[in-house]
Amino acid sequence: MSIRERLLEAFERRPGSVVSGETLARRLAVSRVAIWKQINTLKTLGFPLESAERSGYRLSVPADSSLLKFAAAKHTWAVPHYFFNTHSTQTLAKEGAASGLSEGHLWIAETQSRGRGRLERLWESGYGGLWFSLLVRPKMPPSRVPPLTLLAGLCLRNAIQKVCHIDAKLKWPNDLMVGSRKLAGILTEMSGQMDRTDWTIIGIGLNVNNTISKKLSDVAVSLYRLTGKSWKRADILRAFISEFRPSYLRFQKQGFEPFQVRYWSQYCAPNKLVRLRTAGGIVSGIARGVDASGAIMIESRRKILSISEGEIIL
Ligand code: BT5
Question: Are 120 and 233 within one domain?
Answer without folding.
Answer: yes
